[in-house]
Each structure stands twice: as C-alpha cells, then as structure tokens.
Amino acid sequence: MKRLFIFLITLLLVLVQAEAWTITYAAADVPVACAVNQYSVDRITGKDQFTKLGCFEETQFQQAYDFMLSEAAVAPNVVIRHKESYSPMNIVAADRAMAYSQNHTYLYSDTINIWKDKAQTIPYTYINQANPLYYYNTQIKSKSPSEVIKPSDLVAEVEVNGARGFIQVNGIDIIPLIYVENRSNDWFISFTTRNSLDNTYTGHIIRPNITQYKVSDVSSTTKTGTVTIRQISVQVDTALYVNTYSYGVAPDWLPIGTYYSPDGIVFYTDMDLKNPITVNGVPGLYFNYYDFLNLRTVTQYSSLELDEYFNYYFAVNKLDPNSSVMKDKGSAFVNAQNTYGMNALMIYSMAIHESAYGTSSYAVNRFNLFGYGAYDSNPDSAYTFDSVEQSVDEHMGINLRHYLDYSNYNATTNNSLFYASNIGIKGAGINTRYASDPWWSIKIAGYAFRIDRYLGLKDLNKYQLAIFNSTDRTYYKDVELQNIAYSINERATNYPSLITASIVNDYIIQSTNPIINGTIITGSTPGLVPYDWNASRLYIDKSKLSLINTSSSPITVIETTDVLLTKLVDFRWSSDTELYIKGRGILDHTAMDDISIVTHTLNMISLIDGSKTSYPLTVLPEDFNNYNGLVYNSVGFEGVIDLSLVSDGSFALELVTTSGDTTGSTLLREPALNPIIPNAKIVNNVLYKTVLDSWNTMEYHIIKTSNMPTIQISPSLPTEYMSVARIYDFIVDDNQLLSLRGLGYINNANMGEIDDKALKLLIVDQVNLSTVPFSIDLIPTTGDFDPSLGAYDYIHSWFNESNIDLSKLLAGNYKLMLYIKSNSIEDIVEFRDFGFKGDIVVENSTRIYTLKFKPERRNYDLIVADKSVSTP
C-alpha cells in the first residue's frame, strides 16, 4: 500500500510538470524498455530526459555500476535506475549527485542511520528527514555481486556536515547534480512527505540544492557600536525550507564568495568537490572555533554579561523577557561551569537553541532547557526539573559527562556516545550522537558566535586548540610519558585537545574526564561530579598534535625548574631526636595559587656520599607577594625531621618545592644576623648539632655523631659562627706517642689568661660504637700568633701536647673532635682545615696515621692502619 501511495503521488507530480520524462535509446540493440527487475543505465540529456545506455539483470548490478562509470568518463551525468526504487526518478546510483534523506516517507522512521561500514555493522550517527547530503557512490551492502541485488540491498556513501558513511538507498532520494546546476532553469524535482498521524502523503515540487558556504563582510551591532566582520555562514537547503546560519569568523585564506564543503573544513569552488581552496599548495583547513572549542574551558564572560546579551536580544526583537525562564539566569551557567567544568557560553548557547531562549513549553513547564530525555520518536518523554539551576547543573555534571567520557563504549551494540569533547560537527563531536539534526552544532556555534560578537569577541581564540596528527592518541599522567592515562579513540575525528601549557617536549592538556585524587572518573560514576581544573590535566608528546588556531593568549611555557626562595620562621627541637621546622618556599617565577598541586619536601643530604633522606612537609595556606604579578597562596610549610632515621654524618638541608610541573630546590641558608638555630645536645651519647657553615655561604648543616663521651655542652652559643679547631702539627713516634699542636676557641667567647677554660681531644670510633671514646685533656696555652679578633681574647686557645698515647687505638676509622670550654660556655667542634693542606699522612715503624681530609666540610677523620710485618 505504501508503494502504491508513493507511486500515485509521483505520477501526479509528473503529470503537472511542463514536460514528462523522455527516454531515447543509444543504439539499436538496446531494448525499448528494461524489464521491471532490471537495472537501467541512462544518460541525462535534458530536463527529465534520459538516453538509455543499457539494461542489466539484478545479478549484474556491479557490471551496471562499472558500465555507468565508463560511460560517465565519456560524458557525465549518467545514472542507474530500478523500478523498485522509492525515489521519484527511480535512481539508485549516479556518477555525480546529491541526495535527500527520506526516512520518514519511505521507511516510516523519524531518523535514518549513517553507518561506518557498507555492511552496516558499525553504528555511527543518525539524521532526520529531508536533509541535503553529499553523495559519493553506491555499493552493495553485504551480498555477493553475483547474487540477486535489489535496491534494498544497496547502500550509498554520503556525507553531511562531516559525517561520512553509508546509508540505505531506499531511505534517500538521489538527485543528479545536473538538476542542481539547472535549478534556476526550473529543473524541478518532486519530493514526497508523509503525515505520521494519518499516513497521508503530500507531493512537493522543489528546486534541489546542495549545502553551500558563504563568506562575506557583515556589519553587526555590538554593545559598543557597529563592527564589520568577515563572517562565514552555511546555507542549508532542505527539501522543504532554506536556512542560513552565520556561525563564525572566516579564515584569512578564504576569500569572499560561495563554496561547497561536505564537512565545513575543506572548501571547494565546485559542487563536484574537485577544486579545493589551497594554502601553500595544500587544501586549507578551517576549524570553526566555536564548533571545535573543547568544552573543558571557561568563558571570559560573567553571568551579568550573559544576562546583558539576553536583555539585548529580547529588546531588539520586541519580545517579553518575562516569557523566558532564562531571564537573569546567567549565574546558573557560570556557577555550573565553575563547579562541573564546562564552558558556560557554549552550554548557554545550547540552552538557547534547545529551548528557544527559555520560552519552549518544556522550558517553561519543566525547567528543561536542553530537551533532555526527548527523543525524535517521543518528544514528550523530556525530563522535568525543579529549577533552571538544577537543569543546568545536571546537564553539565551528569548528562554531558556521558558524551565527554572517553571510555563510553557499548561492546554489545558496538556503539559509543563519545565522539569528541566539543559541540563539533555531525562527523565528530557531541552532535554525532546527541541530536539527529546534522546542523545542530552549527546552530549552537552560531548562537555562541553572535553572543561573543555582541559582547566584544573576548572568547574567540582564547584557548589554544590542536588535533592529532598521529595514530598514537595517548595521554599520560606524568611529564615523562610513562604512566598512560587513556587514549582517544580514532572515531573522534579531529578531536580538539585543549593545550593549557607547554613543558619541555610535552603539551599539558585538559582531560575530558574529571580526575579526582589521581582517579579518572568515567560516566559510570553516578550523580553530580565536580571538575577540578588543576587536577584534571594530562600530558602528550608535542609531536602528536598540530595546532589549529592562533590563540589570543600564547601557550604558557612551563620551565621544569625555577629559582626557589626560602625563609625559616621556626626551627627547634620537638623531642629528643626530632626537629620541628617551619618556613616558606617560594618559586620565583611560578604561580603557587593552587594548594592541591603544591608540595614541599625537606631532604637531608649526606655531605659524604650525597645520599638523601626525605621528609614530606605539610603545605600551609600562606599568601606571599613576590611583586611579579603571580599569585602565591601556598608558600608555607611545616614538618618534623626525625634524626633517628639517619646514620652518623654531616648533612646539608635541601628544600624542594613543586607547583604543578615546576620544581625548585635550594640548600637552606641563613645570612641574617639573628638566625634560628636549634640547640646542640647529646642524647644517649649521640651528639646532635646544627651549625651555619660560614665556609659554605651560611648553609645549615646538621652533624650527628654517636659514641660520644658524656660531656656537657651549652644549649646555645654566643654567635651563629662555628667554633674553631685547627691542627698545625700531628707527629707520632715509634712508641705511638702523639705530638699535637693546634688551637681551638668558641667565637665571641674569651680564652684569655684569666678565663676559666679547658680543651679536650675527643677520638671517637666511627665503626665500633661499643668502643669507649678517648678523651684527652689538653692544656690551653699561647702559640705562634694571637688569634684574637676584635674585642674577644683568644690568646690562650692554643694547645701543644707531646705525649698523647695512641697505642690503645686499634686500626680503624675515628672522628677527631675538640671539646672547648670558655667560662660557662661549652662546645664540641670538628677539626677543620682552611689552609687547603689536604691529607696529612704520618708513618712510624709499625703504623700509618692519616688525617683524612673531607672536602665536604673541610674536616678531618683519623684513619689508623697497621703496617704488614714480613716474615724472614
């Protein structure tokens, strides 16, 4: 019955045309008419005039198609027809053609699928009725070419707004391009529509036209006056109406004129798509900013500015703003943007399109601004919300997350909602699976462009976008590109990566999925999910991406290292073996405005072998003005250094601060006149001492020495400078008696004739801690020169002993230290060499004594070695 209705309507349309189809024959051996079950290959020679070239059986479709192409090579405009085709001209294939979707009329369906493969096993996208399509070819769906091939077994390869794939031939009208070229000469065609309520059919006489793009200079009203912008627009001629949508700023390389494009990216001067507009010898590529803007961005406009445009639009169009639920609701979009991480301008534009500026019945009665839940087959299934705010929150925080989820794939249906993270085009973007209208994305981009244009184009090219140029589409969690986060499936053609910064050979990009505490959140997570802009960042090799626009804000180049400025504000003992430390770490040229990506770590670095013991510190929220325009609010740190975790030795203190991918490190120093120094002390025969080393530009050094004798030392010294201990003579005779000459004093503590003073040589076994340390009294005296300095008297700081018995020392490694007492002040200090003498080696008949110079602190260890005795 359906076929009969369509046939009758088509017959009536033919009868009312000025001329009926005229069929002539190419040769005498061509039949007068092909049989009902045959394919007819015809050349179009005039309006509704066909020259028959040959007839082919239904088992010979491929031969018919090859014959059509060979004839078209001689003269174009050749078609294949079959009487079982639903199309008015019965065309199932053509050498050059366009098409209209006819799913509603021919297939009784609200939409028709476009498949990735001709066998129609890989779902792709879907479109609605009467859309103009670029046509490429017709192929057999899945049967063998030698089988009986009916029109229902054929698929056409078509493209609409970048969606290129295969569509059922019996669901479209194939229109030869010669009809489009002669539309001004009244080359009409018939187009049938169906009323789904009563299944009645209506015939229309139309002038077919393929989609065109136009570039022109347009003067437009803005909030500050009139501006002229070279704009691009698309003219969509559906079978029943014509609409033109301006949707962006035209690229510089595309002159004023009219163009053809199946995807809105490459433009041609001819509808056969043979002559592209080139740039430097290759086809130019245009990625409209609003279509390709990754939604994980922030608009430059405030909620008040969005409301300002809304009021302008309603005023200039003489509409009542109170008829819309979007009145004064810009804040709903900006607040949701800041929480759920989707561009407020783009989602605002989506709401405008879906709800007619908030005036649709679903918007007014259900607060549903996006038509969410409404399907082509059942629009009234649209969801109901309690408020505009809830509608916007759930759209950003729940609904659109499914479309932006890289992992959204159903293995059972071999289908996915994820085709990109932008509004996109029909070929790749939210438009692919969100809406049947192939121009849905263009319309939303147009609203965004017009809002941006009115408010001053602050959003245009604000962000740097890039597309993949490699089959490797992998993002990583780390700058070293070792820890894979995820890969973008190739179905997301021209996927726009959002570049936030550049670091060495990587780009830092914004993740399409939220990342919370290092975990990538997918669409399977229920409920509203916030988006942390700083935590949701990934890395990719720069060579895998090609930039597609020139951003108004150049890519931030992040150095992996930066100068670190430090300041200690507290440094003291919190227990017998733990030091509490508090201070600031400031990266000189890097913002520290997000406490979640800032770390402070203290390393104790051995001055002997460079090994490190690390102590993570707590980041404190503390503001700092570095007078460089950057924000610092996470510079503070505090923590505890547990000295029981390190072995004996001397250690420098290194602070390492990171903010995102930038790291700074420096040794802690204190050049101030009143430095903070923890008290020195001996606990359980272990010496813990913190000093400022004047030789090493006032670095903080911590000295830990076990096996110390029980000796009192003063908690604090009269100056931050280290006490002095030097050796001038070190001689050992064959009786192992040491003659030792040197000096030692405490800075700013007198060692004069009348002062209560004492010196002790300490020899501490560094290997066998059970060995009792040696403590030898030395007599303070005068020496070669007076080391006194300023007001302080050090004249009796010398010692000169000649009978120190070393015979009890076993072969081994010892630490040499000097105990110094000046009245009530006591200290223990290492012997150090500032004269660059190096090792001092003393031999007698049985032993070798080496004062081993340690350049890290310019101090000495004593190494005792027995000489080997040869047997006669």
Structure, described:
The protein has 12 helices and 50 strands. With 872 residues, it is mainly beta. Strands 31, 32, 33, 34, 35, 36, 37, 38, 39 and 40 form a 10-stranded antiparallel β-sheet that branches. Strands 43, 44, 46, 47, 48, 49 and 50 form a 7-stranded antiparallel β-sheet that branches. Strands 21, 24, 25, 28, 29 and 30 form a 6-stranded mixed β-sheet that branches. The termini are far apart. The model is unreliable at 1-29 (pLDDT under 50).
Summarize the structure.
This protein is mostly beta strands and 872 residues long. The chain contains 12 helices and 50 strands.
Integer count of domains: 5
Shape: elongated
What fraction, in percent, of the residue positions are helical? 10-25%
Q: Compute the gyration radius: what is it?
A: 42 Å
Mean pLDDT equals 90
Low-confidence stretches: 1-29
Distance between the termini: 127 Å
> How many extended strands?
50
Helix/strand/pairing category: mainly beta
Per DSSP, the total helix count is 12
- Quote the beta fraction: 35-45%
Q: Could you describe the largest sheet, including whether it forms a barrel? A: 10 strands, antiparallel
Q: Which descriptors would you attach to this protein?
A:
872 residues, mainly beta, SH3 type barrels, 7-stranded antiparallel beta sheet, 12 helices, 14% helix
Summarize the topology.
Layout: H1 2-16, E1 22-25, E2 38-46, E3 49-57, H2 61-74, E4 78-81, E5 91-94, E6 97-101, H3 103-106, E7 112-115, E8 123-127, E9 132-140, E10 154-160, E11 163-168, E12 172-176, H4 177-181, E13 189-195, E14 200-206, E15 212-222, E16 225-237, E17 242-249, E18 257-259, E19 278-279, E20 282-283, H5 289-292, H6 303-316, H7 330-340, H8 344-355, H9 361-366, H10 388-404, H11 431-434, H12 440-455, E21 464-468, E22 474-476, E23 484-487, E24 497-503, E25 506-510, E26 515-516, E27 519-520, E28 537-541, E29 545-547, E30 556-557, E31 564-573, E32 578-587, E33 598-606, E34 612-620, E35 636-642, E36 649-659, E37 662-667, E38 681-683, E39 686-693, E40 699-705, E41 724-732, E42 737-745, E43 757-765, E44 774-778, E45 798-805, E46 812-822, E47 825-830, E48 840-843, E49 847-854, E50 859-866
Parallel strand pairs: 1-3, 24-30
Antiparallel strand pairs: 2-3, 2-4, 4-5, 6-9, 6-12, 7-8, 9-10, 10-11, 13-14, 15-16, 15-18, 16-17, 19-20, 21-24, 21-29, 22-23, 24-25, 25-28, 26-27, 31-32, 32-35, 33-34, 33-36, 34-35, 36-37, 36-40, 38-39, 39-40, 41-42, 42-45, 43-44, 43-46, 46-47, 46-50, 48-49, 49-50
Helix pairs in contact: 6-7, 7-8, 7-10, 8-12
